[in-house]
Amino acid sequence: MSILRFAVVGTGWVAGEYLKAIHARQDAEVYAVVSAHQAHAQQRLAELGIIARIFERYEDAVADPQVDAVVLCSTPGIRPEQAVLAARQGKHIVFEKPLAMNREGLWAIAEALEANPVHTVAGFVLRWNPSFNNTKALIEDDAIGRVFMAQIDYWHNIGPHYPQYRWSKTRALGGSSMLSAGCHAVDAVRYFAGEIEEVTAYGCRTWADSEYEFDSNAIAIFKLRNGGIGKVSSSLECKTTYKFNIHLLGEKGAIMNNQLYSHKLPGQTEYATIPTILPDSGDVSHHPFAEEIDDFMQSLRGKTRSRCDFFDAMQTMEACFAIDESLASGRKVSLPLVRS
């Protein structure tokens, strides 16, 4: 496979990590960025030591025959439209999360990809975290047996000190606690314990003067396809350091973050701690974007699915929409959602 040329949409915090990950590779190139602010984009590229074209209009970038793939770090409200256009142009797609802000947008992408099957990966980037790799390997090796209870927490005080706060606090672009960030925890439940069949959720505000246009806190209870149960909590306004807690109870053992108790260690008297890199920072430079891009490139070259392609991530997004529907209605919601 020749060098893959990327157009990265956006120049923000997360886009910067994708730019660095692509630029570091021998088999890929940052061919272009898309930004309405050309001077800022040029400054950002200079800071990263990247020489690339700057497109003001996404439509021009995706129509360029030199572009092989796009990275969608645009605001989430326009991602479906951009993804549909990229698929129709035959461009491979790297999605940042959330993939869409509603079911209709998500399903529009699905229909476009079914008609134009390009290669995809979705930015549930913790799937490439070293501690996640360990946990997944232990589960696949039957270290804890069937996971009958999964509890995962996303606690991250996302306030005015974060650049994205100005738009992520709005219902139009932030959407909900789960869509904004808690979706990482929902995805982790699916990744470790399997598919979700039923959702019941509750939410609340933290402070009376909160600027969030939606409940910044949510808890969802799941019925899992494997007969087990799950729980996710998401808090975007909290007095705590960043926490991503992973507690898994299996028929033959348990995992608490990087601690293991397993039937495979018959003389064990207490949890064993596994040295690793935990998902314990909200700083995107801590997240494994380089590994995500590496998986995208290797799976494209090998003509296999990426670790988290669109149709896999789509099920996480549907679970998030079900959570929000349960929050709004006060009723349980069954999955999968039925496409209209």
Short description:
34% of the residues lie in helices and 24% in strands.
Blueprint (SSEs and pairs):
Elements: E1 4-9, H1 13-23, E2 28-34, H2 38-48, E3 53-55, H3 58-63, E4 69-72, H4 79-88, E5 92-95, H5 103-115, E6 120-122, H6 130-140, E7 147-155, H7 165-168, H8 177-193, E8 196-204, E9 217-224, E10 229-235, E11 243-250, E12 253-256, E13 259-262, E14 272-273, H9 289-302, H10 310-329, E15 333-334
Parallel strand pairs: 1-2, 1-4, 2-3, 4-5, 5-6, 7-10
Antiparallel strand pairs: 7-11, 8-9, 8-15, 9-10, 11-12, 12-13, 13-14
Helix pairs in contact: 1-9, 4-5, 8-10
Write up this protein.
By secondary structure, the chain is an alpha/beta fold. The protein has 2 domains: 4-118, NAD(P)-binding Rossmann-like Domain (Rossmann fold), CATH 3.40.50; 127-281 and 316-334, Dihydrodipicolinate Reductase, domain 2 (2-Layer Sandwich). Helices cover 34% and strands 24% of the residues. The chain contains 10 helices and 15 strands. The protein has helices spanning 13-23, 38-48, 58-63, 79-88, 103-115, 130-140, 165-168, 177-193, 289-302, 310-329; strands at residues 4-9, 28-34, 53-55, 69-72, 92-95, 120-122, 147-155, 196-204, 217-224, 229-235, 243-250, 253-256, 259-262, 272-273, 333-334. The protein has a 9-stranded mixed sheet with strand order 14-13-12-11-7-10-9-8-15. A 6-stranded parallel sheet has the order 3-2-1-4-5-6, with helices on both faces. Helix 1 (13-23) links the parallel strand 1 (4-9) and strand 2. The chain is globular, with a radius of gyration of 20 Å. The mean pLDDT is 97. Residues 134-255 form the GFO/IDH/MocA-like oxidoreductase domain. Pfam families: GFO_IDH_MocA, GFO_IDH_MocA_C3. GO terms for molecular function: nucleotide binding. Residues 4-118 form the Gfo/Idh/MocA-like oxidoreductase N-terminal domain.
